[in-house]
Amino acid sequence: MWSRVLITVILLAVASPARAVLTIEINKGIEAGIPIAVVPFQWSGEGVQPANLREVISLDLNRSGRFESLPKRDFLSRPHSLTEIRFKDWRLLKAEALVIGKLRSIGPDQFEVRFRLIDVFKQKQMVGYVWKVSRSELRSIGHKIADIIHKELTGLRGAFDTRIAYITVVKTPSQGLRYLLQIADSDGFNEKTMLDSKEPILSPSWSPDGRILAYVSFEGGRSTVWLQNIKSGKRAEIASFEGINSAPAWSPNGKQLAMTLSRDGNPEVYVMTILGKKLQRITRHTAIDTEPAWSPDGRYLVFTSDRGGKPQIYRVLASGGRPERITFQGKYNAGASYSPDGSQLVLVTNQGKGYRIAIYDFASRSIMELTRSQLDESPSFAPNGGMVLYATDSQNRGVLSAVSADGRVSNLLKFREGDVREPDWAPYNR
Amino acid sequence: MSLKTKLILVALFGLVLAGCSTTEEEINAAEVADAAAEAGATALGVGSKEGTIGEVLEDDETADAASEDGAEGQAGEDLLALRVIYFEYDSADITAESQAILEAHASNLIINPGIRLTLEGHADERGTREYNLALGERRAKSVSRVLQVLGVGEGTIQTVSYGEERPAALGHDDSAWGMNRRVELLYGN
Questions:
Q1: What is the CATH number of the domain that holds B52?
Q2: Domain boundaries of chain A, sorted by first residue
Q3: Smallest Cβ distance to B165: which of A218, A306, A348?
Q4: Across the interface, do A244 and B125 touch by the CB < 8 Å criterion?
């Protein structure tokens, strides 16, 4: 299963200087995904087309590991409407599904996107949509189309039209290290810097409505917790007690923030109400208790504690109570968070072969490693549970990688500059 | 006779006494020597401001006397030059070697009541950043406890953790990791 085909897709960064990702390397198993033919969209308008929708859609589908977007050099015809389709052309390619569409300029910064997904065997349209959008929204439409295709053909909604947050560390000749809090589309495009600081930033966490980021900043000379509105950029410090203020995690209803505070002497998990900043202490132990994360139903918190001698994952009622130990396998388990359906945790484990990303399954109580390198950390599930985004090391640089929840496909987002780390995958709401 | 000049004379007397003392007095001697150096330094500052050459000369003599203080004092000074306490993996235990360094710093802090110390805790890059932030704090507090047991006032010390965010050594091997699991002792006001 580990014999692999490496596909490197080099994205040409000609159109927009805002593109931060240089390449996306897809590392997939030999088991092929669903073969799908994505025909280049017909462009009607002046000049070159403002977005290559086929490229956006194909790359998304390939990244998921569940599809194999067929190379266009094999396409015998290039239909753009239902009447132009010759089904035998696509049966010959063994394509199960066909994607056709049109991109049309309909006014100043106004474009119409038409898209149809066709079942090649039934010779029938499965879905079709039309959107009217501005130039800046075109890539997002490509991701939406990939999400729809994913849902129609696998039953599971795609998570391509979502965003990620992460920290980039860049070396500047004049100012030394700069720490950037950044957000981008799920493929690393449309990068935007939310905060530029000389001091470390870590642990960005999306609010459930996708409008606010909580994070830890050292700008005051020590770790304090901040909230920042994505749209307005406005920010406020929410926890600056004595000692550590860190590891913010939103409750599923968005009304509370679990966090780690050492105001009482050593790191303990607390829950704070966003309105009123009312604090409830959840853990009471002389050991380290940190990295709280909520269950999707809001009932439980999991956290990392070394009360048993080594860092392991514990679970406690979010209203407080007696914590119960969850992980027993391996000498190090930390940084856990729940899968969207609540049946699994993704965490950092060390089973003696390095720090790797793994899935803990509540039903079988077993840990399955998803990655194979030495210094992987900061995993978070995609909002559909299909993939896990995490930070790893590639040629001595911090990079982001996504791996399918079954471990079979992974892809590396190689950014243009800096060390990239601490990713958090946003929820569906944009 | 100004207060500064009096202080220097007291310090010089102290040194003379220290020179005559027996072994069990030697730690006191080291302390007095440090006090003398401190007093001298202050005098130098004031002296050069006022332009009174006589006091500056006295300071030179103090420094000479302090440098002849003997092996014990010299060792204490060497330890004071060590400002970093290192730790084992996932540990905040103080080694015997570190204990000796901290004893020297504790003595120094006790005889310099105005000076504050910041203990900056750090971790190596392995494992999660948040756990390492907690681990850095545990190390800083571990050092703080030792200093307090040695008589340093709680108000003199403050702790801060940077976790793995401020590595002293880059690289992904045992030697870099060993350099990064540390508490830095930073003197300030």
A1: 3.30.1330.60
A2: 2-25+162-425, 31-154
A3: A218
A4: no
